[in-house]
Amino acid sequence: MTTQDAYHQGPNEALKAAENTLRDLIKEVLSEKLGADWPDKCGVTPERIEIWKQRKEDERKKIRGRGIDERILYYADFYDLPVILKKHWPLFEPCFGKWKTMEVYLDKLEDFRNPEAHRRELFPHEIHLILGITGEIRTSVTYFRSQKKPENKFFPILEQVVDSLGNIATTKDKSINTHRTLHPGDRVSFIATAWDPKGEACEFRLWKGPDYKYIVDWTHDPVLEWKVTEEDIRKEQCIYISLRSLRKYHASGDEDDIMAFYYIVLPKE
Predict the structure, then answer these.
(1) Taking the model in full, what pTM does it have?
(2) Mean of pLDDT values over 4-28
(3) CATH architecture of 154-265
(4) Crossing angle of helices 89-96 and 80-87, rounded to 10°
């Protein structure tokens, strides 16, 4: 989803994309600095962390038989994020600059996330404000990461891809072994979220190995579907989601980024 996509799909999608970008950045920065037990050191109370864990277990029970999002911070409330950011601001200041500015941004986004705000139509200036703040946050994160990978200044990236079974690929984990067994006739959907440094539209493609057969050729739609067939039967079936800008240059061949999901496909008994 690029900036243009967020505008056409509405402010709610832009809010969600920016919120998830913050969650992933917090995990990325704190796990690198504090280690695997970073949630216990992130700055919120143990009671809050227990609430996150309980929500995660409730989700596991609710959708038994499907994968869930294992990222603990995705079960936190939005108001937990400013607490964590402020506690460790020296680590995030290179990305966002002054805390006071970020604090104003987060307070404003929290207002728009309030259920009371969703019971009325947003005014045009409010929509533009949401898109401006969320765009600024995502641009800052992208630029911050680009300092580690200069190529991200020129080529779009896949921020994450989620399949309908609950498996998630991210910028850090681009290849996911789902360990899920499928059968011919099953359908799996993928939702891709992308970011372009120039804020331009991007295209997505869904294809499979080992024969490099396109399932869905280049499309602006970030929602893609794979219908499992008998030719997919194998111990390890890989499904790829590719991204490209509409510019004449690309990071590799005719695409700019790629993520992969591995499944087991067996015949129907």
Answers:
(1) 0.66
(2) 77
(3) Sandwich (2.60)
(4) 100
